[in-house]
């Protein structure tokens, strides 16, 4: 063969750029679940016996590696660098296997993950009425969650706050006493619904997005393997 196919070369580049964007998306959502203020403080395992973040931790690694592989693939394609293409091929096989395992783990253990989340939330509810430093950190993060989700308390409503309600009631306040979603508590008009179901739904939706991205990207990555093999062979025959 006289040279490298321009079509294969640029197809490889486009594929890897899209893979890089997908890897960035997986990494962003997984990190939000793991260390964001809505996740780290509220959904931290605490004294729970099950860690709800096993699949998320794996997908953080997946997202980061996909970004690196995307760079290697783009560079290898544009510079026609055989070493970069070999690294890309081997790395993509490994990440594909890891990705499928993480996706299957997340999908098959979704009920266990939800149970672990329920256990975590129920374990952490006492922090709302605590007076120690850990409790104050949790309360500050949770007050922001309440304001954003328009709810009050974690499990049983405003009573979860105990004596701390007087310090954080503003994040629970309802704009109108006539609103059906509001109620009276300790002389304040607050949101009636607790945050438990809302947090559980939020976590479940984000986990489903991450799992969907993992499986969707796995299908596309098979094309990347094909492109890299064809391009590598063409470069060797130049």
The largest sheet has its strands arranged as: 1-2
- By secondary-structure content and strand pairing, the structural class works out as mainly alpha
Mean pLDDT level: 79
Percent of residues in beta strands? Answer: under 5%
Question: Major beta sheet, specifics?
Answer: 2 strands, antiparallel
Approximate shape: elongated
Number of helices: 7
Order of helices and strands: HHHHHHEEH
Terminal Cα separation, in Å?
Answer: 6 Å
The overall strand count is 2
Binned, the helix content reads: 55-70%
- Unreliably modeled segments: none
Integer-rounded radius of gyration = 24 Å
Characteristics of this structure?
two-stranded antiparallel ribbon, 238 residues
Protein architecture, described:
This protein is mainly alpha-helical and 238 residues long. Helices cover 67% and strands 3% of the residues. The protein has seven helices and two strands. It has helices at 6-35, 54-79, 82-108, 110-124, 133-149, 165-168, 196-236; strands at 182-185, 188-191. Strands 1-2 form a two-stranded antiparallel ribbon. The protein is elongated, with a radius of gyration of 24 Å.
């Amino acid at each position: 063969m006289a040279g490298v196919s321009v079509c294969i070369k640029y197809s490889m580049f486009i594929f890897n750029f899209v893979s890089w964007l997908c890897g960035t998306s997986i990494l962003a959502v997984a990190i939000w679940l793991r260390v964001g203020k809505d996740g780290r403080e509220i959904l931290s395992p605490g004294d729970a016996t099950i860690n709800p973040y096993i699949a998320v931790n794996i997908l953080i690694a997946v997202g980061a590696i996909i970004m690196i592989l995307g760079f290697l693939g783009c560079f290898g394609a544009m510079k026609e660098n055989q070493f970069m293409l070999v690294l890309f091929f081997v790395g993509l096989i490994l990440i594909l296997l890891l990705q499928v395992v993480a996706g299957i783990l997340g999908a098959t253990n979704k009920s266990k993950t939800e149970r672990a989340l329920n256990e975590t939330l129920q374990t952490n509810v006492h922090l709302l009425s605590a007076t120690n430093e850990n409790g104050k950190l949790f309360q500050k993060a949770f007050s922001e969650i309440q304001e954003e989700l328009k709810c009050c308390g974690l499990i049983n409503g405003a009573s979860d706050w105990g004596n701390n309600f007087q310090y954080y009631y503003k994040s629970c306040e309802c704009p109108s006493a006539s609103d059906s979603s509001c109620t009276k508590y300790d002389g304040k008009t607050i949101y009636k619904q607790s945050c438990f179901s809302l947090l559980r739904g939020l976590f479940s939706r984000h986990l489903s997005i991450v799992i969907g991205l993992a499986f969707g990207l796995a299908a596309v990555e098979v094309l990347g393997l094909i492109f890299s093999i064809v391009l590598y062979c063409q470069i060797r025959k130049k």
